[in-house]
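The protein record passed on below.

***
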Amino acid sequence: TTEIYTLSLHDALPIFAVIQGLRIVRAGPAILSIADGRTKEPLLANLVRLAALPAAAGAVALGGDLMAVVSAALAAEILALATAVALFARRYPHVIWSPSRELSRG
């Protein structure tokens, strides 16, 4: 027989902690961008995160459980962090560490 595992709130708490950790990490580039007067960059990262809301709602409408919502939230935070870092790196390429840059210095 196949058991169907549903995620309980207790099981989801560590995942929510990871999501919150990603938000804290994402605050760094956002704060630096805002301090430099570039308020659109945190907005764009948040819009990427907001785009996962319809996906989570659709998953629930199709019979998904808490795991579908948690997965959508985690994916949204990862994409928002990637967007924030990419926008930050575009503006401040000298701040972002790159292994290839270290190798080219010799």
